[in-house]
Design goal:
Length: 256
């Protein structure tokens, strides 16, 4: 059993929970942080690793709550080796229908949250460490109805570069993952058959990703095998970001 410790935000479900399971499989002590305490507590109970898991209920956009959460990590584990900034929210509206309150909440959680969490995490990374920010393909390519979400994720990618530049002397690497469409509970709830068909037409691998596939990428970037990688954004998207027009026509020509 390792004494290495990771804290994952937005860990009650989806990519966050899959990432927690991946780190636990490697013997890491794991903090799961989420605003939805009830769902998170159920997830932690199902993990059945009471000696290795710490559940924290926290809104990452509220500074005092973030400070208290990291104090609890310090008191329980004494150190931190990796931070996964995964907590995020989205509003799906056109620009002219997005209210200031909606815009502000999305940026508060998706951008200010990682800023606040990282400031608390770095002093606990006394032996160096890794930060992985979970962005989105919506931060790399504009798409409709995602003005706040896409903007927040684009800014998160730049925050990652700032972290990489400023924390390197502490032995801390910072990288970003930009997932494509992933078969999470949220995607299943909000992606209509038409949207799923659109993604199929735009993704060379012609499918949604799995939560576990994103978790594997997170694990790699926190592992010693990524020791010379920092300041980068890794698209885990089935080729979506790399592809322009012509994919549908190519498939037709191949009889697919």
């Amino acid at each position: 059993m390792s004494d290495r410790t990771v804290l994952i935000t937005g860990a009650a479900r989806g990519i966050g929970l899959a990432t927690a399971k991946r780190f636990l499989a490697e013997g890491w002590r794991t903090g799961l942080l989420d605003i939805d305490g009830k769902t998170q507590n159920a997830a932690v109970e199902a993990l059945d690793r009471p000696d290795d898991v710490l559940a924290l209920t926290c809104d990452v956009a509220i500074e005092d709550q973030v400070a208290s959460a990291f104090e609890a990590v310090r008191d329980r584990f004494g150190r931190l080796d990796a931070l996964i900034n995964n907590a995020g929210v989205a509003i799906f509206k056109p620009i002219l229908e997005t209210t200031l309150a909606e815009w502000s909440r999305v940026l508060d959680v998706n951008l200010t949250g990682p800023f606040l969490c990282s400031r608390q995490a770095v002093p606990l990374m006394t032996n160096g460490g890794a930060i992985v920010n979970i962005a989105s393909i919506s931060g790399q390519r504009a798409s409709t109805l995602r003005v706040a979400y896409g903007t927040s994720k684009a800014a998160l990618m730049h925050l990652t570069k700032q972290q990489a530049a400023e924390f390197a002397h502490r032995g801390i690497r910072a990288n970003c993952i930009a997932p494509g469409p992933v078969d999470t509970a949220m995607a299943k709830a909000v992606h209509s058959p038409e949207i799923r068909a659109d993604y199929h037409d735009a993704i060379p691998l012609a499918r949604y990703g799995l939560e576990e596939e994103v978790a594997e990428a997170v694990w790699f970037l926190c592992s010693d095998k990524a020791s010379y990688i920092t300041g980068q954004t890794l698209a885990v998207d089935g080729g979506f970001e790399a592809t322009g027009i012509g994919l549908v026509s190519l498939r037709r020509s191949l009889g697919e």
